[in-house]
Amino acid sequence: MRSAEVIRKTNETAISVSVNLDGTGQSTCQTGIGFFDHMLDQLARHSLIDMSVQAKGDLHIDDHHTVEDVGIALGQALTRALGDKTGIRRYGHFRLAMDDTQVACALDLSARPFLVCNLPFTAAKIGTFDTELVREFFQALATHGGITLHIDLIHGLNSHHIAEAAFKSVARALREAVEADPRMAGQLPSTKGAL
Question: Torsion over CA of 39, 108, 50 and 168, rounded to 10 degrees?
């Protein structure tokens, strides 16, 4: 099984993340941030990656440290679960429509982290959740997951829909990228000989 667990403890957060890349999208996400838990559930469900996230953070300050550190731990868990990446598809892309919103995602499990995140939100907050934290999460995920990640809002009006479409489009692209490619069995999807 392609699975991994990461425990991250700092003076700001205590986080435990586990993933199973060959799952069915089951999730147990408890960060103390309701909207973020909802987004993590979407990420698991639509990527078909079983995911458990338990986080305790300094929410009395704000949500920033918790959201960023979950992204760090989740990126590290994905990297560990992928191993040397032999036999995977490596690339993934998806354009997702959700009501008024359409978001496109393209990614490469390249071990060369880079984020392009064009998500201009129409509101500063979704409930009590700062919309700028969506980018912070994806930055941490890309950096620590070794992912070249491009997320672009094609159009959209509702900030909740924009955020949710972004998480779902990343999930569907990730699902494609981590899948085993039967034509690549035993081979690394790179001419360099390493990823």
Answer: 30
Over the stretch 82-108, which tens digit does the pLDDT of each residue have?
999 999 999 999 999 999 999 999 999
Distance between CA 121 and CA 158 in Å, rounded? 8
Burial of 108: CB neighbours in 10 Å, binned 0-12, 13-18, 19+: buried
Residue 18: phi and psi, rounded to 5, are -135, 145
Angle between helix 64-82 and helix 132-145 axes, rounded to 10 deg: 30
In this structure, the number of other CB atoms found within 10 A of the CB of residue 14 comes to 15
CA dist 164 and 155 (Å) reads 13
Tokens standing for residue 78: 């994905």
Side chain identity, residue 8: R
Q: Quick check: 67 and 36 in contact, CB under 8 A?
A: yes
pLDDT digit string, tens, across residues 14-25? 999 999 999 999
Contact of 98 with 164, CB cutoff 8 Å? yes
Angle at which helix 34-47 crosses helix 64-82, to 10 degrees, equals: 20
pTM of the model: 0.97
Question: What are the distances in angstroms from CA 27 to CA 65, 101, 182?
Answer: 21, 25, 27
- Which H or E element spans position 17? strand 13-20
> Which tokens is 94 given?
């998806």
